[in-house]
Amino acid sequence: MRTVGPAPAVDAGGGTIGGQHLPLRDQVLVALRQRIVNGDYPPSERLTEDRLAEDFGVSRNPVREALRVVEAEGFVIMIPRRGAFVASPDATTIADMFAVRARLETLAARLAAERATPRMSPASDVCWTTRGWPPIGSTSRRSPSSTVNCTCGSSRSVATGGLPR
Question: Is 1 a member of any domain?
Fold first, then answer.
């Protein structure tokens, strides 16, 4: 009688790992990163080559190569004679990650607002008092603050940070 093994690993595109035209190591690397980030392999969990090879339906060689890469990226810690373990970020690392993320999200929002056109945002003429943000194109990047004139006739001074172009 044939036993049923684990389902083949599925990539983000919905196919099996071998279904893409990428080197097998890269496919295993993407899947391994994704599983670590998603918490499928929680922090401090031991990762053996045999288990990962079985999880991904590949030989140990691409798993070994992928483990070297995720170790260099900081996702995994290799301990001599003990194996690979999923890294556990400390409080300082987590605080640093959130600080960087906050800065990047703020910058991304500012750039998106500056580059948006009325066609991209049909609600761009909605009053900032009802939406919580000024109409698109209403602030200046060169001055530390600007006056926003809303379509309802009201106005408000808005701090823009005075970013240089």
Answer: no
